[in-house]
Amino acid sequence: MTAKQPLVGFRIGVTAARKAAEQCALLQRRGAEVEWAPVLSVEPHKIDEVGLREATERVLAEPVDVFVATTGIGIRSWFAAAEEWGLVEQLLAALDRSEILARGPKSVGALRRAGLRELWAPESECFDDVLAHLRGRDLTGRRIVVQEHGQSLSNVAHALRRQGARVDVVTVYRVESVEDPTPTFRLVDLIAERKLDAVTFTAAPAVAALMDLAGAVGRRDEVIAAFQADVVAACVGPVTSAAFEMWGVPTIHPDRSRTAAMVKLLETELPSRRSGVAFDVAGHVLLLHGDQVLLDGLPVHLSPSPRAVLAALAVNPGHVVSRRELLACLPTGTAASEHAVEMAVARLRSALGTRVIQTVVKRGYRLAAP
């Protein structure tokens, strides 16, 4: 690894569809091996022009009290379509008379380019904070127009209606899944088997799409476990990171929601994890980093089952782990019997030496500790 190529030796998955080549190039120039598997359509923003025009005409039918802008591309696409229909001046005038709330800098930028000015935007860039801003107010009789961000905001509309608001949701576009999911299924396998150091996400819908595909092949739990332990979920910003919260997956994201900033963050995050965890066991130095195992500085090749057992024992060296607990750690597809654990331990001892793994009679196994 060099200063100019800080990601040499790291394997990174990229889920982006739009501007994917740019992101892959940024990573490759820094020495990373890239696995690209778009989880959304390369042209994900499908606009229903008939439905959008009907929604636009509804917006223009009566005054708007509050307008909520959620995405830059949504705002730009809506205004461009309105211009083609000869309605853009009316639309801008209607929105200009309203209280404008913007989710983040991209929607702020799109609004300002159109000559509109937001009254408020959260520092977090999170849509939940926009809702919190509205939640404490009396919205009785207020007309609120919400621009959707690619996924349905029907629940948001229902919540605002409970506060007495009249809500119109404008669907500018819908995010579509990738047509050929084959590369994504491969990505799921690489994550589940912990063969990647990190995976990048530039849109919240990409998180949902990946988890749906992982569930379809029965590997969602493995994917979640991998993200919780060995594979870094790198997100472009807090909105994308928030999509992982329901899965209990820790994420990293830069202060500025930009792809280059996310790549820069990986430059420091991944090397800091490369040192791995070292143990003094039975007179040897055992180093673990993801699926890499070094014994006294020499690489040791382990198949998935022995590696899973070693990882479980290494969580607390010297602590006894029962056969039943170790059985639960074995990869999917492994025979569900304690004999499978015994075989994995035997292979571990063959690779690391008989003294590294200790048997505690009638209780289980432990990693020898000084």
Report on this model:
With 370 residues, the chain is an alpha/beta fold. It folds into three domains: 11-43 and 177-274, 3-Layer(aba) Sandwich (Rossmann fold), CATH 3.40.50.10090; 48-172, 3-Layer(aba) Sandwich (Rossmann fold), CATH 3.40.50; 277-367, Winged helix-like DNA-binding domain superfamily/Winged helix DNA-binding domain (Arc Repressor Mutant, subunit A, Orthogonal Bundle), CATH 1.10.10. The protein has 15 helices and 17 strands. The strands form five sheets. It has a five-stranded parallel beta sheet, with helices on both faces. The model has no long low-confidence stretch (mean pLDDT 88).
Tell me what the CATH architecture of the largest domain is.
Answer: 3-Layer(aba) Sandwich
Name the beta content range: 15-25%
* Rg measurement, Å: 26 Å
What is the overall pLDDT average?
88
**CATH topology annotation of the largest domain:** Rossmann fold
Number of domains: 3
Which CATH class of the largest domain applies here? Alpha Beta
Strand segment tally: 17
Number of helical stretches of at least 4 residues: 15
Sequence of strands across the biggest β-sheet:
2-1-9-10-11
Q: Categorize the overall geometry.
A: elongated
Structural class by sheet pairing and helices: alpha/beta
Terminal Cα separation, in Å? 33 Å
Main sheet makeup = 5 strands, parallel
